[in-house]
Design goal:
Two copies of one chain form a homodimer. Chain A has 595 residues and is of the alpha+beta class. Chain A contains 17 helices and 23 strands. In chain A, the strands form five sheets. The first copy, chain A, has an eight-stranded mixed β-sheet with strand order 6-9-10-22-21-20-17-11, sandwiched between helices. A five-stranded mixed beta barrel of chain A has the order 1-2-3-5-4. The two termini of chain A are 39 Å apart. Chains A, B: Catalyzes the attachment of L-aspartate to tRNA(Asp) in a two-step reaction: L-aspartate is first activated by ATP to form Asp-AMP and then transferred to the acceptor end of tRNA(Asp).
């Protein structure tokens, strides 16, 4: 059993002693990073969350302490008392590197077995081992830094929102399905056997109700839940900075959120975000970058060649144009030298985005090479090259198809080429951009109906109101996303606050009145009582932290994450439940299957 | 459909205009509190979260606005522009009562039906109607105040903890059973059909793991879940201010939490909590007040009469003493005049706490009256009266039984009498008290074994370590509760950080090694790697807000609460689930029962 503190108090963190502390008698507590003997002395590096301090023990300093120090091993938890002295061999790399602690007392608070992972900067273990031994993984200084950073981000965000009149109000976790459309986690009810709560995918409806309640400005750092198959950077539970404001229009929401984001980046990273942040309509983003979250740290925009090729007798181009599609292209600077095989691979790549193929034009020193050259007159070729602003040495890559396929495939190809050819020069850049004027609806081939692009409470743009019934695909919405370096940081919208309009919206989405009331009746009911104009936004907090911490793994920014099967290696959740409890809940397990 | 804002910006809250604003042109937005005509003018009281402002419309101010203002009804949401002018008939009761707004523009942003509850201070509706129409109930100024207060309490707590080096770290909601011993909410897993997550009853294990991770000081304002039958002031989901510290002993945890609580009461209420807060051992609390959360705003302590009555030949007293119990009493000042029926009712009352009866001695002007007088000599009577410090006019109430029954029944009787006889003089007093030295174990008659009083990670007091195996009922723990006016505000303990001791603890609790590892193995495993001494505490945030807001209904301090059956009248959760989803989860509904 370890020794008790017995009233001993720590006087500093290990990372704190400096030259100005020389001569002070202090007490430190922490974990042994390493323990080595040198010239009859015993040196221990002692670590806590704030840093590392070198301890020195010697027979002539204190014999008992020296002998006990000899026995400690890495990750023992110890307390020591001693005098801060100047170090002989100083270490510039450590903030405490000018001093060391001459120790006359050591308590072994607890011992440690050899840990299964090294506690140091950088990774040495598989993710499974790290997650299983998360408490040790979290001891690593780079993980400690991430959670100190995360704490700072939420604190700065809260301070900002508080200063701007937002009220932090908690919304329920045990609730009813919310309208995001992903799969809910369910919680069986004991009081109502056969009935279920749902965990919220977001506080969407409740924050709108808070606006109807007159709270005016709401925020919450809110846990959200989605029972989806986890792609690389998703977790079953994740955190949003969620906010909503009354008596506002798009500009107001955008303005306050720009200040929020710039405050976070300034206070946490010392980085100045240039305000106002650039804006781009959804249409422009798709046409230029083939994406609603364009990475605009580099150019290589998509160019529309439909006009240039409209008279060409090439069945692929003709077919695309006749079916209402388009012919568009990228120009890869200096790409003409790419070999046939590599270009073929690009062709395979775009096929994964449903493009039928990839035409290309190589502008080589020795002349133009292109499999479609035979369909083009010299004038055609000249006008294409001119439209693409292509020069000798460049490679033009062309997709002809319906627009959605053209955008998606060229957008993905653009990102793929950027990676391959390192088109993003400054990796430390934070390039923000608002995307606006999203479509209100998108057509779901699967469900054979229009679905809401954001959610069914998003307001249409005033000028497009008339098209809700006649041409829903063309209606734009008062929605906005904030994109950083090609990733969505957050998004929101002005909401519908009019019951009639909300009902038109539900109708366009194919809900019967009964279905709409069954799902969202309490919100519709609330609309009867003077709802204010309102709108809001939610940022993915985990994603913000990933950017700020410079990691591309969401599991690095969540203290106790789950794996891609939503399994926790540490606690072994999910796990079996007590038969008696299932009995009380009125449920049976149908399938019993071990994975 | 309501009018659009069309770029109109609010310049102030309704509660803000003052005499110093006279002459300013401002725009306000809010809800119509009332609309009345007077002397050819139209007066509207406009309300938002910050207060109420009087608007005035007239034909000669602006005819269009006047006519439109005539049409608005209570709870319409409107925007107005006008000039702040001095009010003729000032109103001292309103902060804005010196001015009014002479309006030349009004927009009706949305209309309202007649609301089912009045939007005003004070209650006029049943709780069910309030909860069903929560968005309207929350518009009432007293509810708005509560959530503005709640926001302030959490902000002050966060600022304090941040300033004191605590890191806000999120712990999982989808997790495994935690050791509190109440019933968990379960969440069926889709990836592992037949397996379940549990919602946390507290972040207990995770916060201890964070200490083992070296985070040193953790806090979280954490949602917790218990699927229990809801007593008056319980909710299935509730919120804790949860914290944990490394390298500390009891004094350290108590000290920082005293400062936290006093900071909250000072910053939010302007109330100075006298520090240090008084302390009482569990033993004293039980012996003097018959409760581990004693209300010490009044005296009337329990007095032990065992010594005085030990030789009396009264079977009830004798029996109690022979069985290791005791004879104890309360002295109700001025209670001698209580009638027989009322005293009988007190006898019925203590029977609900398993006491077999209530003996009494009335010290009337005309002489002593007592059904047990016949068993007592004059000397016995004198020594009882003297021990009780009773005087003519007082009533002595005696219970003889085993100690647990004596304490519980007299403790409850003490509170009951305090209420009936208004013994608590100053209702605005905040009387804090720490209760310490809780027993580590309590014997569960039902389970026929010892259970943990707090939780199985609570450390025993050093001086009692040896009794864990030999006399577990006598072992005291390093646990502490903070009690305010007879209610538990929070509690915590120093934790065991030694695996051997933890295993002795589990053994004493009757867990086999296998059971202990199945439930808490990941914590035991973590103990192998240098766990620091640590301890912490959790406050019930909802309860703190209840005290600060002066309400005794927990549902008043939760924005969207559930009723006592854990049902939400507003969203109608829990509700039926989709068959397809249950299929994916691999569960069947066994009972289908509508309540």
């Amino acid at each position: 059993m370890g020794e008790a503190l017995g009233g001993l108090k720590r006087s500093m963190y290990c990372g704190e002693p400096r030259e100005s502390d020389i001569g002070k008698k202090i007490t430190l507590m922490g974990w042994v990073q390493r323990n080595r003997k040198l010239g009859g002395l015993d040196f221990i590096d002692l670590r806590d969350r704030e840093g590392i301090m070198q301890l020195v023990f010697g027979e002539e300093i204190n014999k008992d302490a020296f002998e006990k120090a000899n026995t400690v091993k890495p990750e023992y938890c110890i307390a020591v008392t001693g005098e801060v002295v100047k170090r002989e061999a100083t270490n510039d790399k450590m903030p405490t590197g000018m001093v060391e602690l001459k120790c006359d007392m050591i308590k072994i608070l607890s011992e440690s077995q050899t840990p299964p992972i090294y506690i140091k900067e950088g990774l040495d273990a598989s993710e499974q081992v790290r997650l299983k031994n998360r408490y040790l993984d979290l001891r690593r200084p780079d993980m400690q830094k991430i959670f100190i950073l995360r704490n700072k981000v939420t604190k700065v965000a809260r301070d900002f929102l508080d200063n701007n009149g937002f009220l932090d109000i908690e919304t329920p976790i045990l609730t009813k399905s919310t309208p995001e459309g992903a799969r809910d986690y369910l919680v069986p009810s004991r009081n109502y056997p056969g009935m279920f709560y749902a965990l919220p995918q977001s506080p969407q409806i409740f924050k709108q109700l808070l606006m109807i309640s007159g709270f005016d400005k709401y925020y919450q750092i809110a846990k959200c839940f989605r029972d989806e198959d986890l792609r690389a950077n998703r977790q079953p539970e994740f955190t949003q900075i969620d906010l909503e404001m009354s008596f506002v229009e798009e500009e107001d929401v955008i303005e306050v959120n720009e200040r929020l984001i710039s405050t976070i980046f300034r206070e946490v990273l010392g980085h100045e975000v240039k305000l106002p942040i650039a804006r781009m309509t959804f249409k422009d983003a798709m046409e230029k970058y083939g994406s609603d979250k364009p990475d605009i740290r580099f150019g290589m925009e998509i160019t529309d060649l439909s006009e240039e090729v409209k008279d060409i007798d090439f069945v692929v181009f003709k077919g695309a144009l006749e079916n209402g599609g388009s012919v568009r292209a990228l120009c890869l600077k200096g790409g003409a030298s790419m070999g046939r095989k590599d270009i073929d691979r690009l062709g395979e790549f775009v096929k994964t985005y449903k493009a039928k193929g990839l035409a290309y034009i190589q502008l080589k020193e020795e002349g133009i090479k292109s499999p479609i050259a035979k369909f083009l007159s010299e004038d055609d070729m000249t006008s294409i090259i001119s439209k693409m602003s292509a020069e000798t040495g460049d490679l033009i890559l062309i997709v002809a198809d319906k627009n959605s396929v053209v955008f998606q495939s060229l957008g993905a190809l653009r990102m793929d080429l950027a990676k391959k050819f390192e088109l993003i020069k400054d990796k430390s850049e934070f390039n923000f951009c608002w995307i606006t004027e999203f479509p209100l609806f998108e057509y779901s081939e699967e469900e054979e109906r229009y679905t809401a692009c954001h959610h069914p409470f998003t307001a249409p743009m005033d000028e497009d109101l008339d098209m809700i019934e006649t041409d829903p695909g063309k209606v734009r919405s008062k929605a906005y996303d904030l994109v950083l370096n090609g990733e969505e940081l957050g998004g929101g919208s002005i909401r519908i606050h009019d019951m009639e309009l909300q009902q038109r919206m539900f109708k366009a989405l194919g809900f019967t009145e009964e279905e709409a009331w069954a799902r969202f009746g309490f919100l519709l009911e609330a609309f009867k009582f003077g709802p204010p104009p309102h709108g809001g936004l939610a940022f993915g907090l985990d994603r913000i932290i990933m950017f700020i911490a410079g990691t591309d793994n969401i599991r690095d920014v969540i203290a106790f994450p789950k794996n891609q099967n939503a399994y926790c290696y540490l606690s072994e959740a999910p796990n079996i439940a007590d038969e008696k409890q299932l009995e009380e809940l009125g449920i049976n397990i149908k399938v019993k299957e071990d994975k």
